[in-house]
Amino acid sequence: MRYLLLLSGLFVLALSSxxxxxxxxxxxxxxxxDARGVDGxxxxxxxxxxxxxxxxxxxxxxxxxxxxxxxxxxSLVALETSVAPDEQMVIKWDGIQRWNxxxxxxxxxxxAFKASAVPYYQELARRIGREKMQHYLDTVQYGNMxxxxxxxxxxxxxxxxxxxxxxxxxxxxLYHGELPFNERAQRIVKSMMLQKESPDYKLYYKTGWRKSxxxxxxxxxxxxxxxxxxxxxxxxxxxxxxxxxxxxxxxTSKDTAASVQQMQQLRMGLLQQLLDANxxxx
Length: 282
Known about the structure:
The protein is of the alpha+beta class. The protein folds into two domains: about 1-65 and about 195-280, 3-Layer(aba) Sandwich (Beta-lactamase); about 65-160, 3-Layer(aba) Sandwich (Beta-lactamase). Helices cover about 35% and strands about 25% of the residues. It contains eleven helices and nine strands. The chain has helices at about 5-10, 10-15, 30-35, 55-60, 70-80, 110-115, 120-130, 130-140, 165-175, 185-195, 260-275; strands at about 20-25, 40-45, 50-55, 90, 105-110, 195-200, 200-210, 215-230, 240-255. It has a seven-stranded mixed β-sheet with strand order 1-3-2-9-8-7-6, with helices on both faces. The chain has a two-stranded antiparallel ribbon with strand order 4-5. Helix 5 runs antiparallel to helix 10. The radius of gyration is 19 Å and the shape is globular.
């Protein structure tokens, strides 16, 4: 039986597709979060089968700071407005020593994206400016669309917030080139998101980490593109058909003493387990 997405409480995918989709809840995924002592949610959308799978629907529809996952949006706006002519644009290091040594040098956009360099993207936001940034937040309808008082911190200080469901819808539109940015900008950003690939599998994502005195909020958002080998009924030849899946994982951890490496391992280990559980992480 098909369900209207509106009835499920998952609104964004309904807006991004002209057809109804099916919803499937997975309470069994709770075990993966419990095993790591974290509270979170996971949603992924099987594009070809038009099925939205999720764990913890209430949290999937609760807005949180996007943290560094906002670098996807920030990059798109910079490329669209020609603030960044391409992904090789260099921003000079300001000379301030920061905790992450990868940030303490001149960086191109693609290097800054891979290293999740906050100073680079703060400078990018300042160059874009409030008016243009707000225009695209409103046009895309990205989360609550709020900038507040700080053009270079609004995605880090809980002013801008977005749900996991909205992140999945955003990834779906990016993959299909349906965002209000030019095709080149979307293609470049997708290429920067590519983290892992094999002949039949590509994994694209961006992580985020919002740290406070009491907890860590962690994100991974992106998509998987698997190539399925199917026989063409007309030619009899086996052809590769792309099968995309869009996902968003977020969770909170109370372990504020954990190292960066421990948080990275926790986040990516949980994502891999959830993808493997659905046979889409291989």
